[in-house]
Amino acid sequence: MAESTSRSIAIVGGGVTGLTAAWRLHARGHRVTVFEQADRLGGAVTTVARDGWLIESGPNSMLESPQLDALVDELGLGAERLYAAPAAKNRYIVRDGRLVAAPMAPHRILTTPLFSWRAKLRLFAEPFTRARVRPADVSLAAFVRGHFGQEIVDYAINPLVAGIYAGDPETLSTKYAFAKLWEIEQTHGSLIRGQIAAMKQRRARGEKPAARIVSFTRGLQTLPAALAAKLPAGAIRTRTAVVSLSSGQPWKVVSRRDGLAATDEFDAVVLALPAPALAQLSIGPAGETPLAALARVDYPPVASLFLGFRREQVAHPLDGFGALVPAVEHRSILGVLFSSTLFPGRAPEGHVALTVYAGGTRQPDLAQLAPDALRQRVLADLHDLLEVHGSPVFTHTTFWPHAIPQYNLGYERFLEAMTATEDRHAGLFIGGHVRDGISVANCIAAGERLADAAVRHLAR
Ligand SMILES: Cc1cc2nc3c(=O)[nH]c(=O)nc-3n(C[C@H](O)[C@H](O)[C@H](O)COP(=O)(O)OP(=O)(O)OC[C@H]3O[C@@H](n4cnc5c(N)ncnc54)[C@H](O)[C@@H]3O)c2cc1C
Fold it and tell me: Cα angle at 406 between 164 and 22, to 5 degrees?
């Protein structure tokens, strides 16, 4: 619904965070301008359709959330929404060079070959853990080791973190990267008792036991494209990088397009940018860069390889979401998604599609190998793990120089820098994957939060 006084807001960054904020502000009657330095919108969300293949170069899927459901309805995308195929329920983890199904229900832990008896005993003893008082944040690995022992770190947490962050549990902060686990320990002591209590609460509230995995028939790009299509003509400026802001009433936003500078005035500014861009941004009258510290956020490179094969080239049934590889297995790949099992329409008839990730905190140099050398390393792993034979019939490689920010120990200094900058400059709002969580669902929630904050400020 339009609000009484329409105000002008600059949104810097045309990824999921910026576009969600823009749509929310526009829907409330404000005038928005989205500045995006690239020639396309969506940021990390990048779907490519080519020769019958549907490639997700960035994120492959999203987790369902109330905000996502609401957006899908408002944007009229219900008919295009896809939920992950039932077969994708299985998740594999590599142990001793073989794919082992991860135990997805508590009773499966007893029989799984993924963990030794010693590790299973530690798991079953954990609910009797006494509550502990932690004076300070610890790494995720240290946190989980304290509850379950090293084997669970090696064969559950390490691969999980490779799949989510392309990161390393020895350096990731529990408090910032896995805030829910941190809170459960604070309130229940035992993580298992806490999870059971949370499950019971969800059931009592009539909520689904777990969020579903979602995409669209034409891929994730559908979401940013639909958000952008809802904005009025002229609201989006692609190939336009914002270089400086000066605060005040009004805000002055200096941008560059094709080497030409332009200055525009706004009532408020939303920054939905990656850390390196925030670090460079001059904010204030004298060219200050108050977010310069964010240049030190750890953002390891990742290579994403989408590989297409004829079905008969792959012996593995590909009956799952994919496989994650623990660091102790000493492989080149972090994991592989069975993309054509996950959602229909990802590969031509008679073919399968795999998406492989390499690099990350574990092996940043690998992501930067020449494409042919990287492909050989990846194919060697796929041959051993999935019995993939021969060369792919289709390849699409994407290199992400700064893929995902690592919420490592000490991350609070970056969060504090963002809060301090907002506090110093009324009408400035900062958010997105650097601050609000790294998943697409987190970024949708971030866009909503930023829009609400801007509206509250403008109503004063
Ligand atoms: C390889 C990969 C796989 C992933 N897999 C998943 C997954 O499966 N599921 C999941 O939920 N999440 C996944 N993620 C994470 C998720 O995709 C991102 O965290 C999220 O999309 C980030 O959205 P954002 O809008 O905050 O930032 P971005 O998407 O980074 O958008 C920021 C935008 O700002 C623009 N910009 C930069 N500087 C300027 C400037 N000076 N002026 C104007 N514009 C500028 C950039 O060009 C960019 O478009 C993955 C990420 C990557 C890289």
Answer: 80
